[in-house]
Write a structure and sequence with these properties.
The complex is a heterodimer. Chain A has 7 helices and 6 strands. By secondary structure, chain A is an alpha/beta fold. Chain B is an alpha/beta fold. The longest helix of chain B has about 35 residues. Chain B starts with 10 loop residues before the first strand and ends with a strand. Classes of the chains: A alpha/beta, B alpha/beta.
Chain lengths: ~180, ~400
Amino acid sequence: MLEIRWHSRAGQGAVTGAKGLADVVATTGKDVQAFAFYGSAKRGAAMTAYNRVDDQPIMNHEKYMRPDYVFVIDPALVYTTDVTINDKDNTVYIITTHMSKEELIASQPRLEGKKVYTVDCIKIAQETIGRAIPNTPMLGAFMKISKMYDIEFFKDNMVRILGKLPQKIIDANMLAIQRAYDEVK
Amino acid sequence: MAFDKLELRDIEVWDGNFAAAQALRQCQIDVVAAYPITPSTPIVEGYAKFLADGYVEGEFVMVESEHAAMSGCIGAAAAGGRVATATSSQGFALMVETLYQASGMRLPIVLNVVNRALAAPLNVNGDHSDMYLGRDSGWIQLDAYNPQEAYDLNFIAFKVAEDHDVRLPCMVHQDGFMTSHTAQGVKTLDDDSAYGFVGEFQPMNDMLDLDNPVTHGVQTEEDWHFEHKARQHRDLMLNVAPKIQAAFDAFEKLSGRKYNMVEKYEMEDADVAVVCMGTSVETAREVALEMRKEGIKAGVVGIRVFRPFPFMEIAAALKDIKAIATLDRSSPNGAAGMLFNEIAGALFNTDTKALLSGYVYGLGGRDLTKAHLRDLYKELQANVDAGKVTTQLQQFIGVRGPKLAFL
């Protein structure tokens, strides 16, 4: 079982991102789950979304999770929420920030000793899609770090999933995914 | 037909709400009268979009409340159409008066209930308070544990409700957020097979059949009221279960997916078992398998058909179990708990020696963790080892503060 927790603000597309990832994974015959904690959803409020992936049917519906991966798609959430809660020794963090990994860890000592990767999904989204919607770039970074799928296979599937959007937006998302794939470190 | 078909992939990643909306599209509902409420809104929103995009030939009626939504459904069903809607929680509570009208008038409406807590305090998350509120309303109630089942059970619901030997409305329940907003793989039926399964709507005593005028919604007083209610109860007790079983069998032939009135998991040789509903059934199944590796022969019984209550099937499923836990996701507010009482009733005249204890859990969406269930199974095993219930008969799981236990 692979488990992922997304830290996001309502409106940044974590739910769409989690569902998109689940959709791609499902095409390869695996079982998937994508869900979120909404609270009384207000745009901008901190929220979490979740993915489960397994070769077996997923029967577990508990919300409690010890994630293998933590995605942080809003840079400030590293400080205003505990993104390390319920983690494991080998939990991998992919965090959106404009800072270097060293600067980030110095600014948030909780990340000391963790497997941390950084990528500026906000900047990438602004420069490609034109809006600060950092969900698809995070998935590009995840493909690089996890080596889950070949990036071209992943992008082909995302084109299908984003299908109803205007071609210009789809192209921009593909650019964002590729840039995050190339820039995550 | 004057609408477009949709090409679905064999497996789509849908949440429970969208799965239900797709089922409503494929059943070609004539009328949906609806008032939105979290977390059920996307079901009727989905139907409205399919309608606007030309994938359904029907009518969406916007109303001013859930009371009016069900009233609109009653009118449309009495007129002679295939009718459905969806609601949750406070909306369901507001519908209650009209729920009894729908069942008493023998109108085969399908209501998707996305289970949610009842205020106060206000809470949009999932528990079974609204589902429990509907249990004496004369409706058939089916319970889904995941998005696949929310999809499948809608077809079963129309098939059973519209049968002329049944003619009773049917609720399809799913857990708010835990199913309704959780995307999982859903194996789909193609549009023709799905519609072929439920078939063309066959009207009965429809008001728009002007050659055969009928009266609906009459006043009877004491000379006939009891006979009508007794007839309704009789049909629920005798007619409905065989029709549900027949629909389950036909659906298995079509899809390969098998449903049962009572779902039994790891029960053949089980010593201890939990009885529950909704998503908890699946989490408990996973924990039961883990407990077996630790030497505890654990099983799970899920209630699939909540009304009519499968009294005999429950007794048969549980008669050889040594310790049973009932899990109620609704505050009994001064009683032992619905499932505790129903299971006790079903077992009372059997020669079972089962030790029965009740648990209240998950109110307002509070998480039921695998750790909770592991502790619970261990407690049941301790009861078996001691030959008696070692705890109080009613315990609360997952609530903060000092341990709460009663009876």
